[in-house]
Amino acid sequence: MTTIPVMKPWLGEEEAAAAAEAVRSGWVAQGPRVARFEQAFAAHAGTGHGVATSSCTTALQLGLLLLGIGPGDDVVVPSLSFIATANVVRHVGATPVFADVDPQTANLTAKTVEAVVTPATRAVIAVHQAGMPADTDELRTLCTGRGLAVLEDAACAAGSTYRDAPVGAAAELAAWSFHPRKLLTTGEGGMLTLTDPDLADRARRLREHGMNISAATRHTTRQPVLESYLETGWNMRMTDIQAAIGLIQLAKLDTMVTRRRELAAGYRQRLADLPGLYAVTDPPHGQTNYQSFWIRLPDDFPMSRNELLAFLAERGISARRGIMATHLEPAYRGHPHGDLTVTEALTAQTLILPLFHTMTEAEQDHVAAALREAAQGGATR
């Protein structure tokens, strides 16, 4: 039996040719293709500046460093997120404070953030979970009134929209992922987008060891250059090979979003007759790219979420558990937190269904039929 994957990157000969061209050019480290990718991605995202990084994790860490977050500071984050969202707060020496989320969008709200703000709170990381746009206007209104910064974790959200503009267009700082599970992939890699040119300049220094002139500029000049290191930095660079792939992927992004939205509509139509099952859909304030299509099982579903994952696997369907709850992971055992009722319900009752650009109607029919069989108690199991 051929397994239907949960995700498959849309990569082809164009990406292979672009990567090969970068290799043949002799410039494979961070260089001119990275600069072009930064400019093109920032333009597509509707913001001023892009700073390419080695991952979304390092982009988030860079954002916190630019905000001056460090030891003694609290940063509000959703527990319902990939663990990197909380880890980066620890990476800069600050403390993550977990807030609950909205049951329909799986995102932070002003109400859930306000419930956990402390005197030490300096910032909020607002995740656009699985590509679902968070209501960032509402969050900014709350945070501005309390002197808190907002860093948007848009890891999954390339191609999503918020109030008729690209997600992150109005963000002072937004971090993006190009991991293979995302629509736009460079293998690994990330981006920090910014509105402030001075912050963008500093971000470029920090991602390259704090150096006052980039390696690309140093190597292309005809005169000797004695660089200096203005502050302690890191190696957070993207390669030109990755950027070459990213430029091709970016040109395909709008087509990918359109296709994934068609597939999501197909799932909702196929699953509409399953009583009590919730299938993710757009919020009133925007449109999701459906980086992941997740469903929430009703309380009376005849098998647990984990049993259902095994049931689907037996039928050649590769699904995944829903979004993780970081506060339940061993790395955060004993970490204090408040009420996370919605988070714990979502992480226990949700799963992610296969969704990828080349998915066929027959594959969607097979997934829907298996879910319907499971809802009837797995009669033919």
From TrEMBL:
Keywords: Aminotransferase, Pyridoxal phosphate, Transferase
A GO molecular-function annotation: pyridoxal phosphate binding
CDD domains: AHBA_syn (cd00616)
Active site per database record: 182 (proton acceptor)
Residue numbers bearing the N6-(pyridoxal phosphate)lysine modification: 182
Cofactor: pyridoxal 5'-phosphate
Source species, domain of life: Bacteria
InterPro entries reported for this sequence: DegT/StrS_aminotransferase (IPR000653), PyrdxlP-dep_Trfase (IPR015424), PyrdxlP-dep_Trfase_major (IPR015421), PyrdxlP-dep_Trfase_small (IPR015422)
TM region positions: none
Keyword match Membrane: no
GO terms of biological process kind: polysaccharide biosynthetic process
Pfam families in the cross-refs: DegT_DnrJ_EryC1 (PF01041)
Family: Belongs to the DegT/DnrJ/EryC1 family.
The protein's name: DegT/DnrJ/EryC1/StrS family aminotransferase
Organism: Frankia nepalensis
